[in-house]
Design a protein that fits this description.
This protein is an all-alpha fold. The chain is built from 4 helices and no strands.
């Protein structure tokens, strides 16, 4: 239950940050840059959601061994990597979003995720 509350706080913080960042890109570079920044931040938020679901499922299942739990987490990390790569290809290749705002949106939101984990420990 504590994990779900922490994840909700991180989701909220990231959603506000991505929205503010997309707004700044909209003001200074236009609608397409704002969409790209929002899309980049959305990739991180989607990854957090998938990771939290997987972690909660592993923690709730009392019948698995520690080796199985580690395997599940490694598979989840590989899936997140492939998903992230695929979404970058989709965003820049298919949707033709500008790469710099997309990467900035991704990077800032990812950095926020790590800082929120540090702040949550205090």
């Amino acid at each position: 239950m504590i994990l779900q509350f922490s994840v909700q706080k991180i989701f909220s913080f990231q959603a506000v940050l991505v929205s503010a960042m997309a707004g700044l890109f909209y003001v200074y570079q236009g609608e397409l840059a704002a969409q790209a920044a929002f899309y980049g931040g959305g990739i991180v938020i989607l990854n957090l959601w998938l990771s939290s679901r997987r972690l909660i499922r592993v923690l709730d299942n009392q019948n698995t061994s520690s080796n199985q739990e580690v395997l599940v987490l490694y598979v989840a990390a590989a899936q997140r990597f492939i998903l992230t790569l695929g979404l970058f290809i989709l965003g820049m290749g298919v949707f033709k979003l500008p790469p710099i705002p997309l990467l900035i949106g991704f990077a800032v939101t990812q950095i926020t995720y790590f800082f929120s984990l540090l702040w949550d420990r205090k």
